[in-house]
Amino acid sequence: MPHQKRRKDVRNVAIIAHVDHGKTTLVDALLKQTGAHVFRDGETAIMDSNPLEKERGITIFSKNASIMWRDVQLNIVDTPGHADFGSEVERILKMVDGVLLLVDAFEGPMPQTKFVLKKSLELHLKPIVVINKIDRPNTRPKEVAEMTFDLFCELNASDEQLDFPIVYASGKDGYSRLELDDADTDMTPLLDTVLRRVLPPVGDVDQPFRMLVTMLDYDNYVGRIAVGRIFHGKITPNEPIVLVKRDGHHERGRVTKILKYRGLRQMEVDVAMAGDIVSLAGMENVKVGSTLAAPENPELLPMVTIDEPTISMNFAHNTSPLAGKDGGRFLTSRHIRERLKHEAMVNVGVRVEETASGDRFKVSGRGELHLSILIETMRREGYELEVSRPEVILKKVDDDVLEPVEEVVIEVDPEYQGPVMQAIGERKGEVNNITMSAVGTVRLEFYIATRALIGFRSELLMMTRGTGIMYQNFYQYQGFKGEMPSRQTGVMVSMSGGKAVSYALWGLQERGEIFTPPGDDLYEGMIIGVNNKGSDLVVNAVREKKLTNIRAAGSDQAIQLTPPREMTLEFALEFIADDELVEVTPKSIRLRKLHLTENERKLAAKRG
Questions:
Q1: Angle, CA 34 vertex, CA 217 and CA 268 arms, to 5°
Q2: Contact assessment for residue 455 and residue 577, using Cβ atoms and an 8 Å cutoff
Q3: What CATH number is given for 210-293 in this structure?
Q4: pLDDT at 85 over 80
């Protein structure tokens, strides 16, 4: 094998883990240690800059940072931990030469730990295992280290990969140790381990320039920005380059700007070379997976394969009678089409297809959360839209129909184990393992069809009185499982438009849970609550109390309304049936029937 040139002054490393195992907090500690960012009082999770990330406390988008340690530049990429954003992780791993695999010292390896580790081992990366959160009570770092080793063996890691270093750390308190008995100092042991164990990037500065585009950014002044790692050569502003697309077509252009990370900020530089992770402006038609190359050697670099989407929904512009009255700025199908095309270009995990109707779009993603984040982002940007119930994407192989199956872990108190097991059995789940955790909760591991999980999370919270915890991760495609349990209740549908009246809602609340507070605008076909009887019921929620000039002690009862459910996007998507839609506007989330009038619904039912 020919000798490969490496850059000794750079290391590229990604931080991967299951959701909520402390990736972003660990990056905070590294930034503090190296002085790359000055933290204000109370400032935490600095990498989670998106408002949605701050609200939910999870990482959704991959982000870069750069720190200097012992005269070596460490390019760190923080990745999402949730399975629905796995496409971000898959792309990022192509940019780096090593990974820090974080494992919670209490929880141990979880489903997403297995997913991200599998992807990194397939790319022949050598992980550094970081047992994080050792400051927590009831931790079991030694046991977790053994469980992690077993996971490596299960995933057929090579002998070299099995020889992984272990660092014990607390990202929150800002210290790391090579041995559990070592004194608490700072993050030096972890940083030194990264320098020692992560290979310097391969790259020959003398070869023609080649860079793989793994992310896209956008700037109002310079247009589309390609983010990726330079594999060979070097580049300077104004230099001519060729965009090599995945289909083999070439497009010539010039580099207008080169940006590199210094801490959390991007700085303009005059030159970038092999091994650097950079942002280049100048190529307006660049897409994720394309290659930017020197004109004399326009070769396509291999791209990591991204797993296929498993869930789809139909998106359309808002057609309800209240469209345009909630402050939305983008109301037409043309606006929705342009926004979804932009999303599909930037986010390779999303697929957008036109439907036969022309004004509806089939949007496919990796899970409910993946698509609900897109809907919530569009809503905040001023779009008004309506979306259908999530549906799984089936595959046909020969004569067999296959559907996606998830690997699910549920943690509940022992008294709720029976009802949860019964619910899993009704959904045709296969129990894989049952264990007791260190704090006395029961951990259930099982395989279940993705179809059966739609709507299950809210049911789990109700069964366990809000204490149940559920993690899921795509496992594989298996044979079609047949019919699944559906929603057992019907809905109450408004028969006319107007303002919701307390007196009318008071008379309806004994039939089921109410979604609409008094004074809210209603329209015909809007869903205002649940009908426990199991069938849909058309109701009058705008009925006023008939007033007379005769006083009667019995008829003047005080109206006591149960507080209505606060409608969230996750609940709405899980709740609706096939003939219902979620109406999403910047100010409101409403449920409605696909056909607004009762006559239209009866005709649709006859047509089947």
A1: 35
A2: no
A3: 2.40.30.10
A4: no
